[in-house]
User: Fold this.
Amino acid sequence: MSKQKSGPLLGLSKGWAFVSLLVLLMSTSVAYGKPRPRIARDVDCSKLNDTSGLSKREHRQLSRACSLNTRVRVIVQLSAISTPAFDRFANSNGASTKRNLRRVQERVMDVPIRVAERLAQQKHVRYVSLDRPVQASLDQVTPAEGVGAAVAWQSGYDGSGIGVAVLDSGVANHPDLQDPATGQSRVVYSENFASDGGNGTDLYGHGTHVAGIIAGNGATSAAGGFEGNFAGIAPKANIINLRVLDANGGGTDSSVIAAIDRAIELKDKYNIRVMNLSVARGVYESYKDDPLDQAVEAAYRAGITVVVAAGNYGRAAGTNGYGTVTAPGNDPYVITVGATNMENTPSMLDDVMTSYSSKGPSQIDHIVKPDIVAPGNRIISLNAPSSTLSEEYPAQEVFPDNSPCQSNPASCAGTAPYMILSGTSMATPVVSGTVALLLQQDPTLTPDQVKARLMKTAWKQYPPTSVVYDASGTSYLINYDMFTVGAGYLDIAAALQDTDKPVGVALSPTANMDPTSGSVSLDLSGASTGDIILWGTSTTLQASSVWGNQVLDTSAGDGSNIILWGTNTVSSDADIILWGTSLSSVDGSDSIILWGTSFDPNAVDIILWGTGLTGASWDN
Assistant:
């Protein structure tokens, strides 16, 4: 029986993880003693001789841009909306404003790169960074069955009246997104922010699939000819379609931030209570400086529950997938979602983690992520006709059983009503739909109360370890620690039954190490942000209740709860999960994990966001 420590800090096991954790977290203790920079390393010409924090490719690009004083597009975070002195400086130094995003207090600007560092020194400027690219997060199941959505429907909860903002590749006109009584579309607003123009139509195929998981009503499948009803989680919710990805699944920070700004503006008009972000990119700086993270925090402060994909880098060689959560899933205020495999049954008893689901903690800040996991493998949802994904992967399209296209899908490419996709992109809208159900049940819930309720009620009877296989037959050993499974598996029925409404912020905790004593702790205090944290405010919100006893132990001998990475791993390979030094038991070499610098998905030869987890990429 474990005893609950009264304070906010919970010790991590020293044992085998001691040395490697020390290497990882000493960098944090040193960094906290320095003032935070006001400009990102990859746009700062004043530090060309300092190569730390940049890959060789990034340093070469920076050196060339600085030598030519190339114009670059940056995002400038401001502490005030009206900045006349800043405007005068920018205008006199060749900088031009492309977008002024007042609700998130950020500007998209074109500047000569050598002006960027001087721009960062101006009054009211909090941080300057490049306008970085973002992509979609992809890798015969109906997730509604696997997470207990039927219980909600039977109780009359179907998302009615709740607006869900989908920031993705657009949403196609699909019968399953229409009101069957009136024929009116439940996509109540559409706007394009992607660079290739358009009116919100989905040319890629990712956003329509995501919208269907949230709010599809299954009308096409219910008409007959299909094995199952492919309804989404909240089949009467409304969709606010904010297109940020182009026909190839790519976009930019500025397009996503502009869409977030618009969602905040439209919040009251369309009752936008949920925001789904199945898009992301690598981590380049602290979430406190990252413009994408700061934008999602603005949405959170506006009362919108923000749900974000964890990423698809769980197979990353050298790290065993640890430390690969992407931005803005690294932000402690949002709900970050990992992906499970339902094994084609409605019971959670046989559900396992997917091999590709990214694991925490986050780079640089060491935030404990994901927060929760949900079905994301081989999910059937809406297809966008003639979209890039449907035409490139016709074998993943789902036709009626009696259709001649079933035996020859290539001859019908791009025409099916449904499609199979995998990834944390698909798990994220399962949670977003659930949030819509909770808010229909109780519209007074805050984003923090929603997050706490989902985490507290998550199903925690998962196995200690599992071996999973991808479609090629490659095996992966999965350890079910809090950096892999978060608070557990999404459980809609349990969340709807909960009535706890704690006061405070449901900040995802930080893992810290004291370099002097070597003690490692889970910081639930919120001291780094100044927030009043709701964890520990009741017996049901103690760490052992939220994250489960599977990751808590009393083996330290001091009565405190000890968080162990490998508590459930009894094999001799338990030491493969390390935070910093060598991983020789994984790959036979001393691969160094560079914590505190950056994680660039484009430099990892695993799964590129935007190509989709189809065919050989998903798990069996």
